[in-house]
Amino acid sequence: TLAASLFECFFILPSHIADWGKVGRSRSRDRLMRYLLKPYTRLLKFTLRRRYWVMAGIFVCLFLSFLPLHFGLVEVDMFQGAEFPLFYVHVTMPVGTRMETTDAVIRKFEELLLAMPKSKVKEVITKTGVQDLQSSFSQRNSHLGMIHVEVPEAQNREETLSEIIAEVRQKVSRITGPERIDFETREEGPPAGTDVEVIIKGKYFHELAAIAEELKARLAQTPGVIDIKDNYALGKEEIKLHIDEDKANEYGLTLQQIAFTARNAFEGTKATVFHDGDEEIDVVVKFSESARTRLKDVEDLKLMGAMGVPVPLRDVAQLKVEQGHSIIHRFKQERAITITANVDENIASGVTVNQGLRAYFDKISPRYPGYTLEFGGEFAEFQQAFRDIPVFFAFGIMLVYFILGTQFRSFLQPLIILMTVPFAFIGAMVGLISSGNPLSIPSTYGLVALAGIVVNDSIVLVEFINRQRTAGAGKWQAIINAGRTRLRPIILTSITTVSGLLPMALGIGGKSAIWMSMASTIVWGLSVATLLTLLVIPAFYAITEDIRQWRGVRVETTDIEKRVIT
Q1: Contact 119, 158 (CB under 8 A)
Q2: C-alpha distances in angstroms, 88 versus 65, 225, 384?
Q3: Contact 97/142 with Cβ under 8 angstroms?
Q4: Three-state secondary structure of 273-310
Q5: Which 3 state secondary structure label does DSSP give 321?
Q6: Helices (H), 251-376
């Protein structure tokens, strides 16, 4: 877009002016500029006379602009997006539930949802034996099910999506059978995952489960946190052998021998292959069905000791019937349990909930040495964004500084021009407070974009001051002439940009939480930066000239020239 604009400016616009440009002056336009120039000139002279107070006030305003973030006047919702008119209900039955039983329960959900008014529930789609989760891969099992619920568009219903979900939550709580019922919504924007996603890593599952229970209890006490769950699921019962290694060594048995013998007895081992024509059939040797159905059969299993004496398994191992694990989850090659939860944005924010959970784990972590916590979902994306955006912002500012330094052949004047960037931040914070938008990824991108937009006006102003000084004008005369002469192009440039973004910022023609936030940030930032550029940049330029005088550089300022600002 900028390349096309440059091409139009250098090659097409001159021919348009030559063909259609009119020589002459518009009286109404000149009258309007006179109305603007008189008060602007008085205000500019006032600013120049009190330039140090003005700069001090600007730095105070810059400091104050950070306070709304600290005190919560501006919320932080990095992944703000427009809600999709749908939600999902994830139904989890007890492990081992048959597919037919799960399907019967899912049908009860379907009947209940279809009985709701069409103004609340538009369409219902059910799936049995699968759960498609936003924060992980699809899970398939006979005890799982999900319902896709589509609701009318926001403008066609009175209730919000959260209110409809709350009503559905209350209705389905009366359905018996499910072990857990979870709700999930989707939003426009990048797939940030759930509001809370905590990954606990460690060696033993019983310790991981204990930590998970403590963290879930903490989340349950936090206002606004809903749909708390974890992915730790116990499976079917299994017989576990706890080997007494000292006794096993007395009989000359190793763990590998014991495990190999038990596996061959109950699962079998391939002894040979029987060929039936072109077909190969494995011959598996194992205990008969009657000899491997009871716990006593396992205890009586004979192991061959080092001296050739049979040793019953009960003499070297203790057998326990325990529940196994249906799935063993790992994260970065360590056993892990993941806790997820949603946050009601009207009550709390996901960032504050995650920060509170991290502080709580820091308190209990001494009781669980070797176990660590990692955050995923929205909070991980939030942390990554705050690591990357400042780097990109600093790189952009540095690149602009080098380009301006080459253009103006000065190390100081690019700093004068870049002073408009803090002005833009002040305006952006005013915009976030007045519009009620949170600080999000789109609004942060808007701040980065502002760094490249707002410098244009100050470039025009500083370049004209330099040109006036080269033509022989004194410091004060050059500054005031530059402000008066460049007032019109600076105002017109900003007005055209603001006018182009204003419909998007106001949501005219369609509202989008992402684009409205970005456009509002740019509109407010550019508006405030333009106003401050016309007044503060001349004052800052004058201060830099004062500094040069203090360093012994001669700056021409005659008595007549001094009276220009009085």
Answers
A1: yes
A2: 40, 18, 28
A3: yes
A4: EEEECCEEEEEEECCCHHHCCCHHHHHCCEEECCCCCE
A5: strand
A6: 255-266, 295-299, 350-364
What are the domain boundaries of the chain? 33-77+382-565, 83-187, 236-325
Using CA atoms, how far apart are residues 39 and 42, in angstroms rounded to an integer?
5
Q: What number of other Cβ atoms are within 10 A of residue 146's Cβ?
A: 24
Beta strands in 446-557 (DSSP E): none
What residues form DSSP beta bridges with 41? Answer: none
CATH architecture label of 33-77+382-565: Up-down Bundle (1.20)
Backbone angles phi, psi at 392, to 5 degrees: -65, -40
- What DSSP letter does each residue of 485-515 carry, written as one string? HHHHHHHHHHHHHHHHHHHHHHTTTS--HHH
196 touches 353 (CB < 8 A)? yes
In whole angstroms, what is the distance from residue 362 CA to residue 439 CA?
Answer: 28
Going by the DSSP 8-state scheme, the letter that residue 240 receives in this structure is: E
Give the pTM: 0.61
Rounded to an integer, what is the distance from CA 223 to the centroid of its chain? 21
C-alpha 88/C-alpha 147 separation (Å) is: 6
Residues of the chain whose pLDDT is less than 50? 191, 558-561
Q: How far is the C-alpha of 83 from the C-alpha of 329, rounded, in Å?
A: 31
Distance, CA of 244 to CA of 263 (rounded, Å): 18
Helix axes 513-550, 455-470, angle to 10 degrees: 30
What is the per-residue pLDDT for 238?
76
The whole-number pLDDT of residue 53 equals: 92
The whole-angstrom separation of Cα 218 and Cα 356 is 9
Cβ atoms of residues 121 and 207 within 8 Å: no
CA 464 to each of CA 326, 459, 483, 489: distance values in angstroms, whole numbers, following the listed order:
74, 8, 9, 12
Cα–Cα dist 216/222, whole Å:
10
DSSP secondary structure of 93-145: PPTT--HHHHHHHHHHHHHHHHTS-TTT--EEEEEEEEE--TTS--EEEEEEE
236-325 architecture in CATH? 2-Layer Sandwich (3.30)
pLDDT of res. 559: 43
Amino acid at 273: V
Q: Which CATH number fits domain 83-187: 3.40.50.720, 3.50.50.60, 3.30.70.1430, 3.40.50.300?
A: 3.30.70.1430
**End-to-end CA gap in the chain:** 45
State both tokens at 353: 């909930």
Collapsing DSSP states into helix, strand and coil, what is residue 556? coil
